[in-house]
Backbone:
């Protein structure tokens, strides 16, 4: 009965909709940041087909299915076997452009350069604490300029992070006319305080 009601419903032409613009909007490909995907993209095919040909997932819920205990139990009862068949395991579709997925995997596994830097205000705060207290973290926590009331462990972690950034820490040492021996002594002190 519901289907008939839908068919009988009055069709209305929407004059305010530009059909050409709407179609172009639906088929438009946004700016693809990944070079490999952008080069292999076929504008005549849909997004789902393009990604499937490249060996990429359009819908992760469909690609990696969450096992349903109830369905698995039904399968075990019906088939009365505990082992999966080879057909269910080999349910993958042959990929036409599999080199793209391989390139993306290789790019993802490549080592990255750490670009992390502390803000200037935090560097000044940490350098003030190191100048005044050297490695006495509990005294740093009691400092009157510790407005955020950070604990000595939080301060120790911030200083350790500051020392792990070579550009900023080497500049700090250079400004204080300190050598690398001071840096090594700090590392020894930090390991003893742990």
Residues:
């Amino acid at each position: 009965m519901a289907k008939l009601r839908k068919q009988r419903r009055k069709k209305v032409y929407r004059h305010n909709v530009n059909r050409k613009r709407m179609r172009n909007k639906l088929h438009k490909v946004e700016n693809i940041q990944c070079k490999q995907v952008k080069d292999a993209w076929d504008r005549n095919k849909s997004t789902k087909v393009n990604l499937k040909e490249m060996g990429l997932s359009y819908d992760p819920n469909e690609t990696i299915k969450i096992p349903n205990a109830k369905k698995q139990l039904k399968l075990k009862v019906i088939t009365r076997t505990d082992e999966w068949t080879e057909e269910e395991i080999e349910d993958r579709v042959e990929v036409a452009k599999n080199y793209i997925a391989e390139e993306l995997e290789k790019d993802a596994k490549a080592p990255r350069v750490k670009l992390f830097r502390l803000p200037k205000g935090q560097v000044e705060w940490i350098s003030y604490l190191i100048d005044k207290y050297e490695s006495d973290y509990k005294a740093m926590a009691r400092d009157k300029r510790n407005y955020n009331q950070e604990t000595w462990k939080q301060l120790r972690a911030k200083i350790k992070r500051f020392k792990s950034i070579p550009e900023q820490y080497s500049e700090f040492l250079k400004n204080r006319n300190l050598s690398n021996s001071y840096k090594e002594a700090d590392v020894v002190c930090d390991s003893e305080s742990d």
